[in-house]
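User: Assemble these into one structure.

Assistant: Restating your components, then the assembled model:
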Amino acid sequence: MLELDFVRLVMFLRWLESAILDLGDEMHKFYARICSTGDLGLRLLWHIIHLFVSIWYFVVGLMNTLESFLISSGLFKRYRDLDISKVKYLAVVIDSEEALQTLNVLQLLRWLAAIGLRNVCLYDKEGVLKISQEALKLWLKSERMSNETTGGPLLDPKNISLEVISFSDGKHAVTKAANVLLKKHYLNGNTEKPNLTESDMAEALGKIGHGGAEPDLMLIYGPARCHLGFPAWRIRYTEMVHMGPLKSMKFGALMKAIHRYTMVHQNYGT
Amino acid sequence: MDGKRNTILFKLFGSSISYMRRCLFSVLSVGPVPNHLAFILDGNRRYAKKWNLGEGMGYRAGFLSLMSLIKYCYELGVKYVSIYAFSIDNFRRRPEEVQCVMDLMLEKIEGLLKEESLVNQYGVRVYFIGNLKLLHEPVRLAAERAMKATSNNNNSILLICVAYTSTDEIVHAAQESCEDKWATTQSSANIKDSQDGEEKDTDDVIKLSDIESHMYMRVAPDPDILVRTSGETRLSNFLLWQTSNCLLYSPKALWPEIGLRHLVWGVLNFQRAHPYLERGRKQP
């Protein structure tokens, strides 16, 4: 009798244990479902916010297109009387994928020459522009010569001086310059500990052919406003303007960016 | 009785604003959240002029904005916050103005060390980044004390750039790399060859990794967003080396006017640009 009761008790306890475990499983599933619904709600809200941001940028894009059209038509006096001498050196940073569209790059250079800019530095991270630089220079030269012969009024026949650089002209150039400084100031048998200055670094960079001028203005053609690794030594006080994708570049937007630059006042820290 | 009721109402209002902010942050956190935010605190003097405040009051107003912004960043989950507090170029300002900023810095650094300060509340480790030898002695000592006192905090990191410029940082890193290599190659054949005057066309001794390991900013990853207030579009010699894949954001507001809406707008733009910037980071 007693043994039978004991067996029944053990069976009952085992049944109770499995019932509790099942209940625990059900509660866990229910909780997970609530969490994922909550997560789903948050995700939905996040997508809605980004939808509104995209709509905002679409509207802003339309307004900018209209403004560029009006500027190109010469409607605004201030853009006709642009003081281009303030932009002594212009840098153009182009996203490497977009830089593959060489015809777009050429069109941009034509516009810059038409505005009156003489010194331009083209930069792209992967060196795509370095590959097409000879073609670009040849095209520009041939257009200049053909305009000189036909007397075309569209382009100013003066030459545009083009510098083309990539990521290797930035950090790697500084590393090479550090090696030059090591050889010059440390490994020359001098016992005194040297104190390197910024002019020492500038001189070393110049010695290895990376001593280009500091651009006044940088136009960034790409999906985001980011200088993409332009040589750090040269952009201390460079104004950086995002122009959007290269394929949707506009002459009016270019004029507006340059005009805005001519209105800027810098304190240089003082 | 009225005063007590007003305090309770004020606290309830504050709590509900804080709750709504946390809700907003939990929605934003669905997308990528920046790991490192950098700020150029521009516009304090213009703010003081705009509101006819006294000399130096613009900086104090700016400090209040800084404290709330840092709090929002840490609530959002940003681990590293860098601020451009004082540039080497700023030493060229009028001596009275430089002294005013140094005095304010000393006062605020000592405030950081107090128990109830923001850094202790949020477990923030503080670094002072720059050529600290150029600072006035009491400020430099206070900065060193603050770095030591917060060295055990590990929730988030605050990098305060003082007496800093990127070009100075690069030269300093090059110098340290040269000194390291000089010390290790003094007795090697390289020196003998150099003294013989031969043009040795060997691999460069200093590598890019050596330079990067001697940068002041080596204690933090590269920033994800660099914010410069007052609408100026230049970096003024701040983090030029570290911003190769960083979104540059220039809200028109002056620094003391910066608020939550600017931070949210910056993060939303970062989330839009994130796939592109992340691709750029992964490339060598």
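The mean pLDDT of chain A is 88.
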